[in-house]
Specification:
The complex is a heterotrimer of chains A (331), B (192) and C (804). With 331 residues, chain A is mostly helical. Chain A is built from twelve helices and two strands. Chain C is an alpha/beta fold and 804 residues long. The chains are: A mainly alpha (331), B alpha+beta (192), C alpha/beta (804). Chains B and C meet through helix 3, strand 2, strand 3 and strand 6 of B and strand 6 of C. Strand 6 of chain B pairs parallel with strand 6 of chain C, so a sheet runs across the interface. Bound molecules: iron/sulfur cluster (4 copies) and FE2/S2 (inorganic) cluster. One iron/sulfur cluster (SF4) is lined by residues 82-85, 87-88, 107, 112-118 of chain B.
Chain lengths: 331, 192, 804
């Protein structure tokens, strides 16, 4: 077998693995979220299907698959069909550049534990996360419903605003690592993760990822009490399921990104790197869930103010300060 | 406006826009929720653990009887008028003693929302809510209860009251024979 | 016109208005019981207190007793008057038995409303209550005296307004009692009005006893179909059953009250044998099948024998819309063979009235306001009951009333009665119109002279006539008389009682068309092969049942649209069920040419009491309501012509085709209705009616007359009216009875061309000699004696004579 074919095969295997892990991960993240929220509210959460409710995701999937696929009469059909897929796929694609472990040696070959170690991984990630907005905007538009349209528009505005802060908070990371490649960034965090070196950038990134993934307190595009369910009001069955799963995949991706950019990726003592990586991702996910159980939803204007008037200036200053410091250090 | 700020200051200290207050307000809840996570949930695990409702709990409806064992319901239609979901229907009728009663009386429990307005409206204490809440079914028709299904043997929450002993139309007692009545007047008398 | 201020608002009212009414005009409704628009004020209940601040009277006064005057300043919201009202209602409630849950008035009870409105919400009196014994007031009215608040409305209604004498107020002191001297049915034919008038539950409708609450009953303003006056009624149904009828308000016709025939005779639509399913050749079928069959058969017949082979019979009890569509169907087929009443005289009379009455028509209100009334050949209580009540209101004001009629016309008021034989009536009309008065007997001539004098002296005289004895010719003569008597400054109005609620409308539609006699001849000659009957039964109006039966037997197709189980409906080859009046909407044109809208109160269907057999309703779900097949006749007739029409479309079409119905499509239900415009080309004059004189010894001329509850086609199917129907009897003058040595109350044998029947004899002292009278009683042997047909030769024999 030629090297090229083996490379392709390896990539396919990795893709399959990531796919399986991410989807199950997302499904169980849903369960985890419901249980944790339950405990926060002094309930049990779903605990009836299977031991500890472990079969709940399966039951949900079956339910979603067997539900009626409802299409509003005046919907823009092609777009209506594509939008949920778009949301899920863009989320999945971002994982292509995430390194979750140092390269391992298999049958004498060095296998990098990343689907594709792009040297401009950061830009790829930023680009994809901007694409994610299409799922929302198109879904909202195609449903031909007031709620969905409003949700879509809000989503657009919110994502565009927080994109900036997110991008800016990554500049110090790139400056410090001196590379756009995610593997290099991880390696640059040995032994001190950037979260400690540059806590401001970390916090800004954490907040803007929460906003990017439309999680409470930033779930304005789907604010139930005013927009019913926002951009996916008109979706049902598995199409709704795709939006839903997309959101949780997104949460995992963003968790991985935070791990990669700020928490030192797979780096950690004693345990194997891959375990460290997953532990860190899960910790971030927990923080997200905890945040959801704690904070109330922002008002639309508060959200915009916070993004434009606070996060962006702070991250700009942070970029300048970090840059200056680095220049000064290098002397 | 100025007054509003005063109130604000009184409540939140001298500087209403204190950053410290905001930060505290943002972070403290995280502690609260975290603490909650380690407390025992208050949920009853229903089919295994059952709770005993209070006697005034509003669940399955019954029709009760007066102390003499007669049907209390006089088919006055007040419950059906009060019912917000229109699930009570009946037909009033008169028996040979002049007593008004329900020839048939039907509650569609698959519609009932157990609001208790019917029991509230009933002037004879006939219709009453019971705490029996384990009451459901898949066939809506099986949830349609007729008078025979609704009638119970006693007076439910009240075993004293008998409407006809208070309404002065001579059904339970002869005319003018209730406790708070004089006997019928003699119309032909011309005494002052 | 006085201007006064009530609660800081000014209002100008007509002179003579009382302050309570004036306040009502401003939208200020003060609790009151004893005042009633039709009964006036007596100040008995003491509830309508207002505070008179400025003006001729001052202080707390009963507003209903005080006439509105200029400069009055009145408050209703001040503490003193409010407290007064709250106290009064508390006193009134002191002895109340607190039995609203078992009282049929509950929910529509003025006492309930006024108690709350008056501000009495907590009972303070803890002592013992006064009670009364009740009376059995018969099959129509329930009595529960303990609920009485002594407002006297019932007596004022029963005695003063309706002229009843067997009910009143008795007792003294705290024992004032409203009832009869002893138990028994209330005798007035207007007794039911005390149910409407009594603001509490003392008098309730026994036929409606414990059936439905006000909030559950489906009601709509409608028009009474029991006679030609078009009184406003409000039928109410529940569970697909007509449960009661109460009086509506139309100040031009009935005013506020109705007669017992209307109130208790609404049950014809609930008749157990009412046919509710379409039938073809005796077998029940579906609507599409039946419609297809009817259309096909008629097309076949027209193709084979020409359009003239199909004849149509409309009906004075069908709505104007349905009759019109029947007419237009006939026209579209090319058949001119359509009549609207199978009764020849009634048909002709309606056409005369429709053609000639015009602005001379008197409404019941005109009669109430008239100052001299001459009734000739009309028996109001039996033919048009509310007319009797209208006449009474005039007489109560001191108006003179003269009655010329062979029948013992009973009226709830005083009248000068001149019993003349039917044959003499044309002469009387002649004499009234200025003819030779000497053709009558001397006594009669003198009396007539007196009547004529008063008639000439009166300012607003009204002549009233009926079709049964006068016939079309007589009615025409009456109209001529009125024309002669009227001058420019002095109208002389006429009321002609007609046969059915829509007779007038049918008269307009009929124009010069053939009458049913012509159609019968065609049927007998075999030219007519099909007859379509719209809510009519040719037999009921037939003067010769045998002949009509033979003619019907020759038909190839008898199609009937009806809601009554009539003989025609029973024998029809093709039957299509229609909705009864309370279930349908439409227009009736009453006997003065007033277009009156009725609307549907309920949907047709087999009553739940029937489908549930008296027990709880069936526990099954069906896609359609059982028994809901009947459709409005107009809808079916439109369908048969392949036209999808709404009532509005039909009314507009009627307006276009018959300009005298102008304004039809803008009528509203519950209003006073609108007189139709004067018809331009008067129809041809009806032929003179022959009044054949009797020949031969021992034979009597027998005339049939209407009966209050027994004669009407609809009333005959209303089971609740049964107690009002007399057992068959025949009336004979005292002299004739003596000649035959018969006495009052005796069972006799009545023999005529219609066969022999056993009936009771009633001797009427002033019945003209040689005349006998029988009421037409549906469901008895007297059913086929048709009033207005002329006389039957008859013999009256005692039972023993019969045997020998
Ligand atoms: S509980 Fe409420 S909903 Fe149920 S029957 Fe009574 S009034 Fe109706
Ligand atoms: S309110 Fe009470 S008395 Fe009246 S109908 Fe209902 S149950 Fe019977
Ligand atoms: S019976 Fe009725 S109408 Fe007559 S006085 Fe009493 S409350 Fe009034
Ligand atoms: S007078 Fe005639 S129309 Fe009027 S209520 Fe009586 S029956 Fe009906
Ligand atoms: S209404 Fe005026 S006293 Fe009765």
């Amino acid at each position: 077998m030629s090297d090229f074919a083996i490379d392709i095969l390896l990539i396919l295997v990795k893709l399959g693995l990531i796919f399986a892990v991410l989807l199950t991960g997302a499904a169980y993240l849903v369960l985890a979220e419901r249980r944790v929220l339950g405990r926060i509210q002094r309930r049990y959460g779903p605990n009836r299907v299977g031991p500890f409710g472990m079969m709940q995701p399966l039951a949900d999937a079956v339910k979603l698959l067997t539900k009626e696929d409802f299409i509003p009469a005046q919907a823009d059909k092609p777009i209506f069909f594509v939008a949920p897929g778009l949301a899920a796929v863009t989320a999945l694609l971002a994982f292509a550049v995430v390194p979750f472990s140092p390269p391992i040696t298999l049958f004498g070959r060095e296998v990098p534990m990343v689907v594709c170690d792009l040297n401009i991984g950061v830009l790829y990630f930023l680009g994809l996360s901007s694409l994610a907005v299409y799922g929302i905007a198109l879904g909202g538009w195609a449903s031909n419903s007031k709620y969905a349209l409003l949700g879509g528009i809000r989503g657009l505005a919110q994502l565009i605003s927080y994109e900036l802060a997110m991008g800016l908070s990554l500049v110090p990371v790139v400056l410090m690592a001196g590379s756009f490649s995610l593997t290099d960034i991880v390696l640059a965090q040995n032994p001190v993760p950037f979260a400690l070196l540059n806590p401001v950038a970390f916090l800004v990134f954490l907040i803007s990822t929460a906003a990017e993934s439309k999680r409470i307190p930033f779930d304005i595009p789907e604010a139930e009490n005013e927009l019913v369910a926002g951009f996916h009001t008109e979706y049902s069955g598995m199409r709704f399921g795709l939006f839903f799963v997309g959101e949780y995949i997104n949460m995992m991706i963003l968790g991985s990104m935070i791990t990669v950019f700020f928490l030192g990726g797979w780096i950690g003592p004693v345990l194997p790197p891959i375990v460290w990586f997953f532990a860190k991702v899960m910790a971030v996910a927990f923080v997200f869930i905890w945040m959801r159980g704690t904070l109330p939803r922002l008002r639309y204007d508060q959200l915009m103010h916070f993004g434009w008037k606070f996060l962006i200036p702070v991250s700009l200053i942070n970029v300048i300060v970090t840059g200056a410091l680095l220049l000064w250090l290098k002397g | 406006m100025a007054e509003g700020i005063d109130v604000y200051k009184r409540r939140y200290g001298q500087n209403p826009k204190s950053l410290w207050r905001d930060l505290k307000g943002t972070v403290e809840p995280f502690y609260v929720t975290l603490r909650n996570m380690f407390k025992k949930p208050v949920t009853y695990q229903y089919p295994e653990e059952k709770r005993t409702p209070y006697p005034r709990y509003r669940a399955r409806i019954v029709l009760t009887r007066d102390p003499e064992g007669g049907e209390r319901c006089v088919a006055c239609y007040l419950c059906s008028a009060a019912c917000p979901v229109d699930c009570i229907s009946m037909q009033s009728s008169e028996d040979e003693n002049g007593r008004r009663y329900a020839a048939w009386f039907r509650i569609n429990f698959s519609r009932c929302i157990y609001c208790g307005l019917c029991a509230e409206a009933c002037p004879t204490l006939a219709i009453q809510m019971t705490p029996f809440y384990e009451f459901s079914g898949r066939d809506p028709l099986k949830m349609v209860y007729e008078k025979e299904d609704l009638l119970i043997a006693d007076g439910g929450k009240d075993n004293e009251y008998n409407f006809y002993k208070h309404a002065g139309i001579g059904v339970a007692n002869p005319r003018g024979g209730n406790e708070d009545e004089y006997g019928p007047v003699d119309v032909r008398s011309n005494l002052p | 016109m006085p201007i006064l201020t009530i609660d800081n608002q000014q209002i100008e009212v007509l002179k003579g208005t009382n302050v309570l009414e004036a306040a009502k005009g401003l939208g200020i409704v003060i609790p009151h019981f004893c005042y009633h628009e039709a009964l006036g004020a007596v100040g008995a209940c003491r509830l309508c207190a207002m505070n008179f601040v400025e003006g001729p009277v001052k202080g707390i006064q009963m507003a209903c007793m005080i006439e509105a005057k200029d400069e009055m300043v009145i408050t209703t919201t001040d503490q003193a008057s409010q407290e007064m009202r709250a106290r009064v209602i508390e006193w009134l409630m002191m002895y109340h038995p607190h039995d609203c849950p078992v009282c049929d008035e509950g929910g529509e009870c003025q006492l309930q409303d006024m108690t709350i409105a008056g501000g009495h919400d907590i009972r303070r009196y803890g002592g013992k209550k006064r009670t009364y014994s009740n009376q059995d007031l018969g099959p129509f009215i329930c009595h529960e005296m303990n609920r009485c608040i002594q407002c006297y409305r019932c007596v004022r209604t029963y005695q003063d307004y309706c002229g009843g004498t067997d009910f009143g107020v008795l007792g003294t002191n705290q024992r004032v009692y409203f009832g009869r001297f002893r138990d028994g049915r209330l005798e007035s034919p207007f007794s039911g009005n005390i149910v409407d008038a009594c603001p509490t539950g003392v008098f309730t409708d026994r036929t409606f006893r414990y059936r439905t609450r006000y909030w559950d009953i489906e009601e709509a303003p409608s028009v009474c179909p029991h006679c030609s006056l078009g009184c406003a009624v409000i039928p109410g149904g529940r569970f697909r059953e007509l449960q009661r009828v109460r009086g509506g308000v139309n100040k031009q016709t009935n005013g506020f009250f109705i007669c017992d025939r209307a109130r208790f005779g609404g049950g014809y639509g609930n008749h157990p044998e009412r046919p509710r399913v379409p039938r073809v050749d005796g077998a029940q079928t579906t609507w599409p099948e039946a419609l297809r069959a009817l259309r096909k058969r008629i097309t076949d017949l027209v193709a084979r024998h020409g359009p003239g082979a199909v004849a149509f019979l409309g009906s004075p009890r069908a709505s104007l819309e349905a009759n019109y569509l029947l007419d237009s169907w006939a026209a579209s087929l090319g058949s001119r063979r359509i009549a609207f009443d199978s009764h020849w005289q009634h048909d002709r009379s309606a056409r005369v009235a429709a053609g000639k009455l015009g602005p001379r028509a008197a409404s019941l209100e005109d009669i109430r306001c008239s100052d001299f009334i001459l009734m000739i050949g009309v028996d109001p209580l039996n033919e048009a009951p509310m007319l009797a009540l209208a006449v009474r209101q005039a007489v109560r004001r001191g108006v003179r009333l003269a009655v010329i009629d062979p029948r013992p016309v009973t009226l709830p008021c005083a009248a000068a009665h001149l019993p003349l034989a039917p044959e003499a009536l044309p002469d009387v009309l002649e004499a009234l119109a200025g003819g030779d008065i000497r053709r009558l007997g001397r006594r009669e001539a003198v009396l007539l002279e007196g009547i004529l004098e008063q008639l000439r002296a009166a300012e607003r005289p009204v002549l009233i006539g009926g079709p049964d004895l006068l016939g079309a010719a007589g009615i025409e003569r009456l109209l001529d008389t009125a024309r002669l008597l009227a001058s420019e400054h002095r109208p002389c109005k006429v009321m002609t009682v007609l046969a059915g609620p829509n007779s007038f409308g049918c008269g307009v539609l009929a124009r010069q068309g053939p009458d049913f006699e012509a159609i019968l001849n065609g049927m007998l000659a075999g030219e007519i092969k099909a007859l379509v009957c719209l809510e009519s039964d040719p037999m009921t109006g037939s003067s010769d049942p045998a002949r009509t039966g033979m003619a019907l037997g020759k038909l190839e197709l008898l199609a009937a649209l009806d809601y009554l189980p009539t003989a025609a409906a029973h024998h029809a080859h093709l039957f299509l069920p229609t909705t009864a009046v309370p279930e349908s909407a439409g227009v009736y044109v009453n006997n003065e040419g007033r277009m009156l809208l009725f609307s549907s109160a309920m949907d047709p269907g087999t009553p739940i009491s029937v489908s549930g057999g008296g027990d709880h309703p069936p526990r099954t779900f069906l896609p359609a309501t059982p028994g809901s097949e009947p459709r409005p006749a107009w809808a079916t007739l439109g369908h048969l012509q392949g036209r999808r029409l709404s009532l509005r479309d039909i009314r507009q079409a009627i307006e276009m085709e018959h300009p005298n119905f102008a304004g039809l499509s803008s009528l509203t239900t519950g209003g006073e209705g609108k007189r139709i415009a004067d018809i331009s080309p008067p129809p041809e004059t009806a032929p003179e009616i022959p009044f054949p004189h009797s020949e031969g010894e021992g034979t009597l001329r027998l005339y049939a007359m209407e009966d209050f509850a027994g004669s009407g086609e609809l009333a005959g199917y209303a089971s609740a009216l049964a107690p009002l129907r007399p057992t068959p009897f025949v009336m004979l003058g005292a002299l004739d009875a003596k000649q035959r040595s018969l006495s009052d109350g005796q069972q006799v044998r009545l023999r005529s061309e219609l066969g022999g029947v056993g009936v009771a004899l009633r001797v009427v002292p002033d019945l003209p000699a040689g005349i006998a009278l029988v009421p037409r009683l549906r469901g008895t042997a007297l059913e086929s004696y048709v009033p207005g047909r002329g006389h039957y030769d008859c013999q009256i024999l005692s039972e023993d004579e019969e045997k020998t």
